[in-house]
Specification:
Number of strands: 23
Helix content: 40-55%
Strand content: 15-25%
Number of helices: 16
Shape: globular
Largest sheet: 8 strands, mixed
Amino acid sequence: MELLSLSMPQFNLYGRSGNNRAMAPKFKKRKRVRKRWRSKRALTIGAALSTAVVLVVFLAATMARDSREIKVRLEKAKAAVSESALLIKGGKSREGKERLTSAQEELSEAQRLLQIPGPRLVSSIPVVGNSLRAVEGIVVVGQRSIRAGAELADLYAELERAKRSWIKTGEMDLTVFAKAEERLGRAGGEMRAAREDETEIPKTFLIPPVAKARRELEWQIKAASAAIEKGRMVAKILPAILGGDGRREYFLAVQNNAELRATGGLIGNYGIISVDHGKLALERFDEIHALRKPDAQPVEAPRDFVERHATLLSTSPSLWLNANMSPDFPTSAAIVASLYKASTGKQANGVIAVDPVGLSYLLRATGPVKLPDLGVTVGSSNAVKWTLSDTYADFDERSDRKDSLRHLAEAVWAKMLSGSFSNAGELASALGRALDEKHLMVYLVDPEEERKIKSLGYGGETKRSTGDYLLVDVENYGMNKVDYYLKESVSHDVELQEGGRAKMSTSVTLYNRAPNSGLTEYVAGKASPGAPAGTNEAYLSIFVPKESRLKLATLNGLSSTVEVAPELDKTVFSILAKIPPGGKSVFRFEYEVPKALTGGGSDREYSLIIQKQPMVNDAEYAVSVTGSIFTPLSGDFRSEGSRLKAAGKLSSDVTLKELFKAE
């Protein structure tokens, strides 16, 4: 009301002016009319301004109250969804679905609050309006995601019923996978719609909390969509793998990461898994030397592998210990299958590789197993240490150690088949993690089924690339078990140049954390000339893009002899080093890549695929990209001055991309 009281005197003063009274009469009437009109206008403007002030105050108070309530509703919905996920994964599907219903109710209430007059009236204001529309979009996408979650809750319930049937009959009901495919298809449909809705949500002119929520939503929707689609594909292929069309046998290769080979570690033990219409059995588990057959015929292998590893491809009994020296698991697995056929005359339907790290993931789902004869309980927390370190100290005889591993394998297998573990969902998650991280890999002899396994990312194949590529492979040449103590870090520096070329400088540091004393001779190995026991004799190779040209290679700062060879549509640089206990070696390669950038016109894309070698300790990587003739537009790198950087642990294969604009 202050505006009204101030405005009226301003106009009345003009009417009381002394000059007005001295004017001619013929003008007085018009001026009195004008005076009344101006007074009326003053009242109108004052009233309007007063009303506007009251309205603004009301809207501000209403918006503050409504925004707080909307925020509370969204936070409750988010908490309910998180609780639901934990309940569903914990085998409590019904309770999890109830929490999803609560989340849906909270989102519906938030949606109602967004439609009341206060928020609607300010929706045209920049930043505020965009943020409101973004919140509306987030709510809509959240509702679709919850509907997808409800399908997953029902799926987990069906898996639990199938688990109970499995325990009762000893056979897996393969029809559950058809139901799973159907439910995952519906969930995938909701997520596809959610992704379409997500693209309509404003990305610019958002207040910081909304901008952050929008970015998180985009990532979560993308990840959830990919996971659901992958699950649907798994459900589609599993019935055939589990013997839905008849009996199958798979060769189980148990890899020992303490003595590294390209796909993870030498194959020290093996098993034969049979499946027949959902009935599973571990028919044999033994050490790999049991398959030695000196008069076996040489196996077939790709030409590039033969040329690079010619001395290994013979009828030597030791070939089993070097069969997986190709980082491409389908290549190594095909050699293993050929060796098995040469030794036994039997053709396996596929090869499954697992290592102690993958075993620890399974034990997290099944719970620990007791080995009474050995007086030990093995669980997820000690599986890697017990299999790759403790058993070497506890058992002097090699045969005793092999027996201990057999007891462990049989105990874990029995627990899985008995169903005496928490829930099917946890086991599925453990298997998924092991597959994603290459601690569990699958190769199928049938070409079409193998293609599907590769499309899921579970085949462990070396990926083809059109841009930059890097895979670091360490092979143990010391015939010891010290790779349990190995740690690796990789630095990859890229300088982009005209024409899509690039200069590369790749450094790999290997740390040997083995103790100077206390290791058995079997673990530490026999000391070679000039090297103490426990020395890690590492044959390091880096796989880089085809036609890469090596300019310089150093080992610990000194120029070194390098083997250069083609393999797997890549160029390979290799150096052998001896790393004493507590020491380290730094390998550095400088080379040129003829085509590191793809695309044409003004926009170019730099793409880097980094593939992992399964090890006890995940390697660490750091990538740096420079190029003054290009301006970065968007991608996976963060900007630090004139450089683009990315870093992390190589728990799984990594793909990094950045879009550039030519100067």
